[in-house]
Design brief:
The protein is an all-alpha fold. Helix 2 crosses helix 3. The longest helix is centred in the middle third of the chain and has 22 residues. The two termini are 36 Å apart.
């Protein structure tokens, strides 16, 4: 890796405005929680729960392991299409 590679990578990072992406203070995990990851995890749980209720009439955590697998498998199919 050369100095030009590093400078180019830094420029791409700044162009995409990634300094403010993913933490409250824009300085990464040393200053604040990563709200992007927290939101994505929460969205995943909400999606599983909604799909479980639509298909089985129960929340995701109330489902048997096999039915939880079905919900997660269907969620993966939906997100890749």
């Amino acid at each position: 890796m050369t100095q030009d590679d590093i400078v180019s990578g830094k420029a791409g990072f700044q162009r995409a405005d990634l300094m403010d992406y993913g933490s409250l203070h824009g300085m990464g995990s040393s200053f604040g929680e990563d709200y992007t990851a927290k939101y994505l995890a929460r969205l995943g749980r909400l999606t599983e729960d909604e799909m479980a209720r639509e298909r089985f009439g129960k929340s995701f955590t109330e489902l048997a392991e096999g039915n939880q697998y079905v919900v997660r498998k269907n969620a993966a199919i939906v997100t890749t299409n």
